Amino acid sequence: MKKTAQILAIILCFSAQVMAQCSLCTKTAQQLGEGPAKGLNNGILMLAATPLVIIGIMGFRYWRNHRGA
Question: How far apart are CA 5 and CA 53, in angstroms?
Fold first, then answer.
């Protein structure tokens, strides 16, 4: 479990640099300015991370329960 937490921490550190905007959100962010654009981008990343973490936990539990079968 400790190794999984370390991997998750590394992924979160690098994902902060990702630009996760569609073309419509990019145009909106350009009009808002630098500060609000970063906030918009971080919000998009948080909304995308939540289902990915849930799917990852479910996949890990499935793998852990079925690896010996």
Answer: 12
Contact 32, 10 (CB under 8 A): no
Residue pair 48/20 in contact by the 8 Å Cβ criterion = yes
Q: Which residue has the higher pLDDT, 34 or 58?
A: 58
- Tell me the domain boundaries of the chain: 2-66
Assign 14 a pLDDT band (cuts: 50, 70, 90).
low
- Provide DSSP, 12-66: HHHHTT-----HHHHHHHHHH-HHHHHHHHHHHHHHHHHHHHHHHHHHHHHHHHH
Residue 43: Cβ within 10 Å count: 12
Indicate the pLDDT class of residue 4, thresholds 50, 70 and 90: confident
Residue with tokens 């590394």: 10
